[in-house]
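Troubleshooting log. The previous structure file for this entry was overwritten by mistake, so regenerating from the original sequence record. Sequence copied from the archived sheet and checked twice against the printout by T.R.
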Amino acid sequence: MVGQQLHSPHPMGIAQQRAWVEIDLTALGDNVQQLCAHLAPGAMFMAVVKADAYGHGAMPVAEVLVRLGVQRLAVATTQEGIALRQGGIHVPILVLGAIYTPAEIEAIAHHHLEPTLCTPHQAALFAQTLTPLGTTLPVHLNIDTGMSRLGTRWTDALSLVQAVHELPSLHLASVYSHFATADDPDPTFMAIQRDRFEAVLTELRRHGFHPPMVHLANSAGTLGDRTLHYDGVRIGLSLYGLYPAPHLRPILPLRPVLAVKARITQVKAIPPHTGVSYGHRYVSDRPLRLAVVSIGYADGVPRLLTHKMQVLIRGQRVPQIGSITMDQLMVDVTELPDVQPGDCVTLLGQDGSEQITADDWADAIGTISWEILCGFKPRLPRVYLN
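Regenerated output below.
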């Protein structure tokens, strides 16, 4: 009726009518406290909130982190840093990605972000762009000790530091490197990288350069070896309650922050020898009750999980059946006769004594939990708890 006020049919609102991501901010805070207590004395906590805080929502996560006393944040792109500034985040923000255009350099300066420099050529471009603006930027130098990604090779680190020292408008804020194998139980190559990093620092000091801050450890390095904490650590995955490798689990009791939930939209009985979903990759071998769940690969549930995943309903595990589709998937609820449309399904998270994690999904399809977390699409509302 025209002019009639419409009300949500569910007290939690429309965000939880179909499918959603729950972010437990209390768990986030607990993880921060656990990690801070684990740090070596004097080491700074730099929280990595790139990729929308690994799918958790950069602004709400950053607000909690700043409130808890985290001194620095790190992002991958200039745009991610600008979004945090526009949201009211004022702590130092390190941009980890490489920047090579004057327009982006000007944006970095305007929003008081702190860039990573990887080469002397990049440093010269920064100085050329910034000098006419009368602006001095703190810059962080990425030294490649074995990742073979961004950064100046460790044997050439001195030339990069000298270039920055001689250029106007640039102020050295830190020297850092990144581990390639810190999550490997075999520490051999991690030790090689640490030794190369130490050699760089020794050479810099011998030539009179004393970086205000040096940092090396990611989540795996932070958990595994407190001697790697230096002046600070860069923590991403573990902040969100997951472990970079199974052997690191006993070190701290972290709690997953993210859960994924959806609603059952239909329940039906199907007879034996009935195909389910596209391609009939599943054909029933008995009478069963099938529930349709309102989430699919367009939301971030990998299609590769077809027939390799379970979900939780009323605290019990039930198997997924038939090909996962763009917006929906099916589960076998034969053993749960009271299930009905509107019931909540936990795809990731805890229900009763049962828990399914991003590691479970990653192990099932041969990927990593980082990719699972970053894969949940914007059409899934983020619902923040506590």
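The two ends are 37 Å apart (CA to CA). Archived copy saved in two places this time.
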